[in-house]
Amino acid sequence: MILSGHEIRSRVEADEITVTPFNADHINPNSIDLTLGDTILRYCDPIIDPRVEPEVVEVKIPEDGLTLEPLSFCLGSSREIVGSTKYVPLVHAKSSTARAGLFVHVTADLIDIGSIGTITFQLFSTLALRVYPGMRIAQMTFWKPKGKITLYKGKYQGSIGPQKSKIYRDRHWETLVK
After folding, report:
1. How does the average pLDDT of the chain come out, rounded?
2. Alpha carbon 166 to chain centroid distance?
3. If you ran DSSP here, which 8-state letter would residue 2 be given?
4. CDD domains, per this entry (predicted)?
5. Partners of 31 in the beta sheet?
6. Within a 13 Å sphere around the CA of 137, how many CA atoms are in the beta-carbon half?
């Protein structure tokens, strides 16, 4: 069951959903808008080896915007700290953002219940597009789980700002090389 916008607001006010800072103007019929922070990360290596910590460069988005080049990939993050221990958040692009040629968080939209932090957006620009700090770039829905809940305690818990891939920390790599 998806929560309506009115119910999202009610659950934020009841401290069952975290959205900080909260802006009531960002509530939609069944979601809340998330805004882009002021930093992006770009990977430095032409080939990403998932067994090795990737090197990234941090770029501040100027107030007058930053142009994302066509067919480029970077990581951004929400300004808002979001999450819930009672509902399952999902991140989606805003349709207006998608219609401008920017894929936002397409392949990893499910946020584990209990994860609280900023959202890292995977940004893939199909066209040259200017982005600005604070622009509404994504939206989050909340879903009521059914069954016993196990809260997230993983490697991205408490994230602030964009987070590079931490797949290199996964223990399964050790068993693959034996």
Report:
1. 94
2. 15
3. B
4. trimeric_dUTPase
5. none
6. 30
